[in-house]
Amino acid sequence: MDTKNAILRTKFFDRMCHWIMVACFFLVAMSGLSWFFPSLNWLGNVLGTPQTARILHPFLGTVVFCLLIVMFFRFVHHNLPVKTDVVWFKNVVGVLMNRHGPKLQIGKYNAGQKILFWGIMSLISVLFMTGIVAWRAYFAAYFPIPVIRIALLAHSLAGLGLILLVVGHIYMGLWVRGSITGMLTGYVSRAWAKQHHDRWYEEKIAPTADKTAKPHS
Amino acid sequence: MSMQSQDIIRRSATNGITPSPQARSHTEEVAKLIDVSLCTGCKGCQVACSEWNDLRDEVGENVGVYDNPADLTPETWTVIRFDEVEDETGRLEWLLRKEGCMHCAEPGCLKACPSPGAIVQFANGIVDFQSEQCIGCGYCVAGCPFDVPRISKKDNRAYKCTLCADRVAVGQEPACVKTCPTGAISFGSKADMKQLAANRIEELKGRGHEGAGLYDPAGVGGTHVMYVLTHADKPQMYHRLPENPYISPIVRGWKEWLKPVGALGFVATLAGAFAHYVGVGPNTTEDIEHSEPALAPDEEHHSEGSE
């Protein structure tokens, strides 16, 4: 990667957070799906025997939750709604149809990514709280059975929602070339930045051109 | 316990396309009939259960009532419940009920269980936990309308009354039935037990027990453990025996509704993503890099081809 002409988009610490979480999330999601769709029981084998998977699932889920909490505080300021998000929404069809027309004034993350951010953060919170309620052998005994029933339904619902969101997230990463490299190395090309996040690109470039270093990721 | 010599009509976490062994056509539905009016609360059934099933629960402490142990546990699969009630005239009455798995025709535990084959229902109606397949998730606890399964702290697996599936499979009655000294527990075909109950209820009514009746709740498709209750109109008096037990709609929603909707969601998401990629193609920046060589004044050396 030509780092001289590329732009640092994601710092090492954040990248590590992201990829450790990916590894844990993969294992948690596969084991969770193995119980939700018993015909896909083999998915649980990623964590060993069914019994081992059942023991590890909540611990790994807690790791995912903790990493997401860290990432929440590191990314939230980029994901607050801004007025220009409306521009992206108005042009969402064009964006999806790969038509690169007008400048959409997209900051570090576009409106769709912001929805993903808040979706992931709220769903993981639901998963964590309901997961605690259903967690044998440590916590479930402290909750009445009707509460556990609601928790199990909500956990499944939130789990499905989160996995589907993540499938969309993965697809977007595959579709928008340069994104996965960006998350692996941290760097994106200037063309990538200008095309997908024009406002962020200008904010990043401006200080370099003016020679006024501004500490901003 | 695993009983390959019996037909299995339901198997947890297994779809209907792959049925379990079904070849034995001559299996009769069995039932245990517990006549609470004959029970003296001697707890002989509890001892016989521990004896036959090799269970030796820890000796607990008296909590001020006759129920001993105080509740079902992973190593106590049946408990005699003692309820002191007063009738309209202020007369004291002991209501005794032998609590344990009801062996529902539509078992909530089996519906909730995510581990293939950890819970089975034999053609004779017995619902049995196959402990070696149990993963200890506790979904059966959430699924059961009677609050019967218990998770062991020793091995993290669920346990409950097996209706002595092993004894029944070889033509014997459950251990509790064999040992009951007053004849309060009977065992046989479900049809015979219903007939026996009907005779007994008539007798009880003749003796002034107007509320006498059979507890075989339809909400769970009937049960393979039935009670003759002297107050069948008020089953809750017998240690909160539910009047109309049914599988919670939340459990049904989770297993019957959310599962197909979730599967549809997956298919739609994956198919949509695939169609999008095939239709729209990758989103690259190559065109910009070729048509606009100078993106910014300081970008003469721009090169991204080797990424």
UniProtKB/TrEMBL annotation, chain A:
Q: Which Gene3D superfamilies match?
A: Transmembrane di-heme cytochromes, Chain C (1.20.950.20)
Q: Where in the cell is it found?
A: Cell membrane
What keywords tag this UniProt record?
A: Cell membrane, Electron transport, Heme, Iron, Membrane, Metal-binding, Transmembrane, Transmembrane helix, Transport
The cofactors required by this protein are: heme
Q: Which GO terms describe its biological process?
A: anaerobic respiration; formate oxidation; respiratory electron transport chain
Q: Does the keyword Transmembrane apply?
A: yes
Q: Name one GO cellular component term.
A: plasma membrane
Question: One short Pfam family name for this protein?
Answer: Ni_hydr_CYTB
Membrane recorded as keyword: yes
- The portions of this protein that span the membrane are 12-35, 55-76, 115-138, 150-174
Domain (Cytochrome b561 bacterial/Ni-hydrogenase): give its ranges: 13-186
For molecular function, the Gene Ontology terms on record are: electron transfer activity; formate dehydrogenase (NAD+) activity; formate dehydrogenase (quinone) activity; metal ion binding
Lineage, top-rank taxon, reads: Bacteria
**SUPFAM superfamilies linked to this entry:** Transmembrane di-heme cytochromes (SSF81342)
Show the InterPro entries listed in the entry: Cyt_b561_bac/Ni-Hgenase, Di-haem_cyt_TM, FDH_cytochrome_b556_subunit, Formate_DH_gsu
Per UniProt, what is the membrane topology?
Multi-pass membrane protein
Name the family the entry cites: Belongs to the formate dehydrogenase gamma subunit family.
Q: What is this protein called?
A: Formate dehydrogenase
Q: Which organism is it from?
A: Acetobacter orientalis
